[in-house]
Amino acid sequence: MQSPSDKRLLYVWLALSAITLAQLALGSRGEAASLTPNAAITSSAVVMALIKVRFIIREFMEVRHAPALLCRLTDLWIALTGVSLLGSYFIGRMI
To answer: In angstroms, rounded to a whole number, what is the distance separating the alpha carbons of residues 9 and 60?
Structure first.
């Protein structure tokens, strides 16, 4: 019989797989001949990747059971990474 934590990991793994498939579908929507960047697709891909990172940190690195400070710091790190990635992308588009 599976323990509740095994079921939880299975559900997280299924969610990660679904997000990966969504990213694959989103990335293949553009035309192959056109290599122009699309802000909506890029932003969506970065946000989905950050969601996946949070799942992995919380569940597979077991930060979910860590002290509250570590949970907040990892969330802050993810937010700062997202702001940095999206900020550099949009600033690079303006230049």
So the answer is: 8
Q: Which of 18, 4, 16 is nearest to 58 (CA)?
A: 16
Residues 18, 19, 24: CA angle, nearest 5 degrees: 95
For the stretch 65-95, pLDDT in tens is 999 999 999 999 999 999 999 999 999 988 8
**Spatial distance between the Cα atoms of 39 and 20, rounded to a whole number of angstroms:** 19
| Cβ neighbours of 25 (radius 10 Å) | 9
Collapsing DSSP states into helix, strand and coil, what is residue 3? coil
Distance (Å, rounded) from C-alpha 3 to C-alpha 45? 33
Collapsing DSSP to helix, strand or coil, 87 comes out as helix
Instruction: Quote the CA–CA distance of 79 and 5 in Å, as a whole number.
Output: 27
Number of H helices, E strands in the chain: 3, 0
